[in-house]
Predict the structure.
Amino acid sequence: MRYSWDLPYSAVTPKATYVNRRRFLTTAGLAAGALALPSAAWGTTKLNPAKTGWGQGEQLTPLNIISTYNNYYEFGTDKSEPSKYANTLQTSPWTVSIEGEVDKPVTLDMDKILKIAPLEERIYRHRCVERWSIVVPWIGYSLSELLKQVQPTAKAKFVAFQTFYDRKQMPHAAGLDWPYVEGLRLDESMHPMALLCVGLYGETLLNQNGAPVRIVIPWKYGFKSIKSIVKIKFVEKMPPTSWNRQASNEYGFYSNVNPEVDHPRWSQAKERRLPEVFARPTMKFNGYEKEVGALYAGMDLRKNY
């Protein structure tokens, strides 16, 4: 099935341009030494995603930015710290438990997760609440392919996610009540654009980008796309989320990209697409309103921010 955000693969940056990191840095006019890429136990595998070309054909954000300018508070609150400290994260072995209101609870290792559905490369815009955005060639498959394996019951209304946390591996963690937790409505989780992500730029995820498995919800602010997942639980009631728990007046459960709803401390009307200098208007639902707007029909998106 093709969707409205699909592009022919001919419109996507050629794989040869980005798989070879040294060549990519040369093409971008960047020094090879400028890119710090901590190696993970599982994160050295080349991936061969299907050439579906999901995306809007925009200029990809350079890999050196994606891998060195990160929000991952388990490895520090400064944007540069995850790329420095995330090498302590051990990503093999790794398992994800799926439980709660399901008929077939299961615990899966990465080999089994990779075999559930064919991998696809999808180019998604990614908008951060701090008013910057990036365009990333993520690799994975629709989250629904994983979730339907456990057969949710009629009581399942929401899906709760929990990230990995180990103080010994994350000595620089600060600022939040750990472990990090997130949540989605069941229909949001099952939307075909919601991505279970295992890679980017042709390879498995780097530690600082959420290795070995994360989700990507492109129509929501970036903190909804939880990294390094170890538990998924189907629940009947709306689950807690880390940033909502930390500051409920600033971060709502839904966290859809909405330029009409300001953050209490700044306007969300504009964003800066890295590495651009000048701001551009923020698009509602990050530009995916046609695809996901029906999920929120009739809702007050100022109240349900």
